[in-house]
Specification:
Blueprint lengths: L4 H11 L5 H42 L3 E5 L7 H9 L4 E15 L3 E9 L1 H4 L9 E3 L11 E5 H7 L6 E12 L2 E15 L4 H6 E5 H8 L7 E6 L5 H10 L5 E5 H4 L1 H39 L1 H9 L4 H32 L1 H12 L20 H27 L3 H5 L3
Parallel strand pairs: 3-8, 5-7
Antiparallel strand pairs: 1-9, 1-10, 2-3, 2-6, 2-9, 4-7, 5-8, 6-7
Length: about 425
């Protein structure tokens, strides 16, 4: 009795049994359509976020969150840069490195990045030591000219631990026979597997001092790699570091170095979200249909309410309340269903595989054998808001049509 009249009547219409059972069926279909759309959208975006997180984490296990490198020449004051970086509470680790593009020759040839590292320092910025399938990072002792290869790179080159490879660098050196590429034979001391194809097929690791000798860099390095407590602060931390160092330096972070992958993953998630939102739109269209049929069915009731003094705005409010409640119920059910489905997706996948004796994510094809998910509260909130807005917009036309009902015309044949 304390509710506004349009709200009270809208709630009563929602609970009351209707003379036309088909209208009730369409209303139920609208609720289920909205709920299904919200459930599918939450689950799909959670799985896509999980795959993005998994790819990002595997990539960043072997690469730096941020790098600071000299502009066009070796970086000589890298010990001071590392000392300065470690004073920043946002920095978890810092290590020097030497990077060079090379052509590695075994049974076959393959271009790759050869990275020179200090084994003791490398543990501070990457998990290379934990990703070794054969050998150890400690085998990269100075002067040994040992090298570690990614698993895919070693497989393509046709080499294993104990074999030797020839590293052909892009730089040339003067010889009595003219300018020739720099060549150096390294011995394969280990094989690592990061679980990310770009790294496993495109990276080789050697001792930094060995690579400095080959490149005649002296004590200089390419730059300093940084590992941070919060990777989203990578650019700011690296920029702040350069402001404390003398000279000019180049700053890059993990988003700029992997810009194509980063933006493509983000674009895929956005496009998939837009496409799956059409499922919610279908539920909203069903809501329009059910409300239009309800307005037609309640012509006499609308006319009586108008004669009792209810304004056209009040009549419009009655059907907007009813349609919005249908949208709210569908959205709540969809959010609950989406969260439950996401948390139990791994179990459902296992049941499907055991029932039909199939493997949906075979380990010999995919690096990721499970089904990762990352249920983000912001995604759930945005999806729920989209569903509620669509449901509200779907009520406008039927409610406006109800408000235009002529009482005399509606009661003529009653």
């Amino acid at each position: 009795m304390f509710k506004p009249i349009p709200v009270a009547i809208g709630l009563r219409y929602l609970r009351a049994k209707r003379r036309n059972g088909f209208i009730s069926f369409i209303s139920l279909a609208s609720i289920l359509g909205i709920a299904l759309g919200v459930t599918v959208l939450i689950t799909t975006l959670s799985v896509m976020s999980g795959f993005q997180r998994e790819i990002r984490d595997r990539m960043l296990q072997m690469t730096a969150h941020a790098t600071v490198s000299a502009a066009g020449e070796p970086m000589e004051e890298w010990p001071y840069a590392i000392e300065t970086a470690m004073k920043d509470p946002r920095v978890a680790g810092a290590a020097p490195y030497v990077d060079v593009q090379a052509l590695i020759s075994g049974v076959r040839k393959q271009p790759a990045i050869v990275r020179g590292v200090v084994p003791a320092e490398e543990r501070k910025v990457s998990v290379l030591a934990e990703k070794m399938k054969a050998g150890s990072i400690d085998d990269l002792s100075p002067g040994s000219f040992n090298i570690l290869l990614g698993s895919e790179l070693a497989l393509w080159l046709g080499v294993g631990v104990g074999d030797s490879v020839v590293v052909m660098l892009g730089e040339t050196q003067s010889t009595p026979m003219g300018a020739m590429l720099k060549l150096k034979r390294f011995q394969v001391a280990g094989i690592f597997e990061a679980g990310y194809n770009e790294i496993d097929k495109g990276l080789a690791v050697a001792n930094m001092s060995d690579l400095q000798r080959v490149l005649r860099m002296g004590e200089g390095v390419t730059g300093v790699r940084l590992k941070l407590h919060d990777m989203d602060q990578a650019w700011n931390v690296a920029r702040d570091l350069t402001e404390k160092l003398p000279g000019l330096y180049r700053v890059s972070d993990w988003t700029s170095e992997n810009a194509n992958l980063y933006h493509s993953l983000k674009m895929e998630k956005t496009v998939m979200g837009v496409l799956l939102s059409l499922i919610i739109a279908m539920g909203a269209f069903n809501l329009v249909s059910s409300l239009v049929m309800l307005v037609t069915d309640k012509q006499a009731d609308i006319a009586i309410l108008r004669t009792l003094g209810l304004t056209p705005r009040g009549v419009m409010g009655v059907f907007m309340v009813q349609g919005s409640l249908i949208g709210i119920i569908g959205t709540v059910l969809g959010v609950i269903g989406g969260v439950l489905l996401t948390f139990n997706l791994e179990r459902i996948l296992g049941v499907i595989e055991s029932t039909f004796n199939i493997t949906l994510l075979p380990s010999d094809v995919y690096y990721i054998t499970g089904l990762p998910y990352d249920l983000q509260a912001i995604d759930v909130a945005v999806i729920a808001a989209i569903a509620l807005v669509m449901s509200f917009l779907a009520t406008l036309y039927p409610a406006w049509r109800a408000a235009r009902t002529d009482p005399a015309e509606a009661l003529r044949y009653e």
